[in-house]
């Protein structure tokens, strides 16, 4: 409710703006403050590297949000111009709020893909309930994430309208209904054994971020994750390890020097075989790895010219069955946004090494036979609404491995919340395995069925929840929220004219 009250204040100030400059500036300042606060986890990431002073992290966040705030500013400007140019001269706050909601839907969608896209976080995230309830986000299958953000603005506009016209009973009743909707329990409160019964073992090994690249700890890290995984390896199961869990290169064909640091010796075949023994002969492992692209370099030697943040499927016999390469790279982490400007300030990307990361082709479904059809979204990819599944080859579930150790205390709860939004709008369960937390199993209603908190080592066992039939959003993608935006524009511009015409005839 606090978020909606703040949003109501924004709508009031924008509606009261004397000209387009004031409207754009007020929208921009709100966006800058909102996005800087929500993205402060990026600053924490600078504490986990040695190349740059930590204080640069606190510069990087507001600098990034100087750009991101353009989109709320554009939404405010568009709503102001539309109400002044197209609507009747006397524009109520309801009409303005409706146009602002439509503009926000469009600009938030543009933010998700412009310049590779950065949608973290969507405004509609405030409408997601606790772990055992989807809250108002239960309507995501019929709205999509960006239209849910528009709904947040409509709800805030409704509150401010009721206060403005002194409809206190309406305002109070609306607030109570919204609060009840946020607390209303989710569907299927009792978890039953799914029809397809894919057994999983989901591991959170607790590998602190300052150990990820410490070669002296690689073998101990492997033994840690192996101890958590071995129990039950006589069963057929889907084993889920996080991003950054394996320091070894598991593919054949690299120059021998790349295998020198491996925990299993310079032998990728042996490395795969011992992982197979850990997971069990009848199991399949999904885990994060780094793949290298090998080619002749300037010095004439074969070497890595680029890298891909990937997930591979490994059988219990140590055979690589499938690969997925990450399509959306993390700003500052795997690439440097606005590189031309930020490098002059001494900033660089935060991942170790000098090899450039390249993006994969996009969503892909991995057919794992008896262990189901897995959609893969690595780490922050899960925040991209409408871009997480192959619509022509729908998966049974989404696996979201992540290294949340550099996200600070603010990042992991937001990350989990956005994974829940993907589960609701796609109608698919999401399984998250992270290095340090929060790992979770999320059903197709967005309910958290099991979780391992931050700073803990642990394991979750169970059966992958059943998917739902494709939702309306799964069928239409982001054409759905854009359609809602178009409808809001039509209603905002047409209804006042129809009411005015009716009064003139009456």
Strand line-up of the largest beta sheet:
5-4-3-2-1-12
Q: What's the gyration radius in Å? A: 25 Å
What kind of sheet is the major sheet? 6 strands, mixed
* Shape category: globular
Distance between the termini: 40 Å
The averaged pLDDT comes out at 84
Number of strands: 12
* Helix-strand pattern: HHHHHHHHHEHEHEEEHEEEHEEEEHH
SS summary, helix count: 15
Helix content: 40-55%
Give the DSSP E fraction (strand runs of 2 or more residues): 5-15%
Low-confidence blocks of residues = none
Structural class: alpha/beta
Please specify the SSE layout and strand pairing:
Blueprint (H helix, E strand, L loop, with lengths): L1 H14 L4 H19 L2 H5 L9 H14 L1 H16 L7 H19 L28 H4 L1 H20 L3 H16 L15 E6 L13 H12 L8 E3 L27 H12 L4 E13 L5 E14 L4 E6 L13 H4 L22 E3 L5 E4 L20 E6 L8 H16 L3 E5 L4 E4 L5 E5 L5 E6 L8 H5 L2 H27 L1
Helix pairs in contact: 1-2, 1-8, 2-4, 2-5, 5-6, 6-8, 6-15, 8-9, 8-15
Describe it.
The structure is a single chain. The chain is an alpha/beta fold. Helix 8 runs antiparallel to helix 9 (168-183). The chain has a six-stranded mixed sheet. A six-stranded mixed sheet has the order 6-7-8-9-10-11, with helices on one face. Strand 4 and strand 5 (320-325) form a beta hairpin. The two termini are 40 Å apart. The protein is built from 15 helices and twelve strands.
